[in-house]
Amino acid sequence: MGDRTLRGARLGGQSFEDERGIEFAARQQVGYQCTRGHLFEITMSVEAEVPATWECPRCGAEGLSTAGILPEEKVEKPARTHWDMLLERRSIKELEDILTERLELLRGGEIGPAHLHRPVKKSAKKKANA
With contact defined as beta carbons under 8 Å apart, do 27 and 46 qualify? Predict the structure, then answer.
């Protein structure tokens, strides 16, 4: 392992380039305050679109811009329930007819678990056997 070590430079990236003659991009300091009261500033390009919120570096809570920039409210669709989706396919009248039909089958013992079937009256059994 000793033969494989890098010599002459530290790991982690130290640049040997000179900063003379380099023009840095114009910057601005943007202030934010989180919900826990922490004030912090973020350095951004002057050309950057400044976001209304930024994560607080101290606590991780959401910080709002102190410049008065408000976050855009997202338009949320109302949640569609099973009933809403059912009404897209069937009318109330159709649903009532289907319910009546299924209840008759259930009560007649043709569908559903046995413990829900109504007992057949003795007179009806005699007529069926005759």
Answer: yes
Q: Identify the band that residue 19 occupies on the pLDDT scale cut at 50, 70 and 90.
A: confident
Average pLDDT, the chain: 83
**pLDDT digit string (tens) for 60-118?**
999 999 988 888 888 888 899 999 999 999 999 999 999 999 999 888 888 888 776 66
pLDDT of res. 20: 79
Pairing mode, strands 27-34 and 62-65: antiparallel
CA dist., res. 32 & res. 40, Å (int): 5
Residue 44, classified by CB atoms within 10 Å of its CB into exposed (0-12), middle (13-18) or buried (19+), is: middle
